[in-house]
Amino acid sequence: MTRGSSAAGGESGASGGDSDSGGGGGGGCPPGRWAGRPEPLAALAEAARGSEVPLHVLDLTEVTDKAGFLSACARTLAFPSWFGRNWDALADSLGDLAPGTVVVVSGWHAYAEARPDEWETAREILTEAVPVTALLTLK
Q1: What is the pLDDT along the chain (139 residues), one digit of tens a residue?
Q2: Distance CA 100, CA 2 (A)
Q3: Pick from 130, 120, 122, 134: which is nearest to 37 by CA?
Q4: Can you give the C-alpha Rg of the chain in angstroms?
Q5: Whole-structure pTM value
Q6: How far is CA 16 from the centre of its chain?
Q7: Nearest CA to 101 among 24, 16, 32?
Q8: What ranges make up the beta strands (E) of 26-137?
Q9: How far, in Å, CA of 87 to CA of 99, rounded?
């Protein structure tokens, strides 16, 4: 599938828009899968503190479009200055993160409602990123 095309037919292994299903509690969630962990963001951050697991909180509260989403990813995940700011570049850059990296996505509901096709593509890329475990917050 070409990045940016419609992600028709299924969830690509994702559990849907909420994080309250799938993943079996998240403890054994494989990289690239949405974990079903309903804990507050602060509890997730605290659990990762002092561990070897790289944790990034991708706050999409102010995001309204693809450009804003890609900029938030570049800033939060410290992508290199040459990051291409397109779907393929996002997939490549996520693949370069350290194995086991956890990306907690918060504030995503408004973006998902405003641009559902873009959000589905973004979510698919996060889901397929091999070294990354992505979690959605409920709020």
Answers
A1: 333 433 333 333 333 333 333 333 334 444 444 444 445 666 666 666 667 778 899 999 999 999 999 999 999 999 999 999 999 999 999 999 988 888 989 999 999 999 999 999 999 999 898 888 888 876 5
A2: 26
A3: 134
A4: 14
A5: 0.68
A6: 13
A7: 32
A8: 34-35, 55-59, 101-106, 132-136
A9: 20
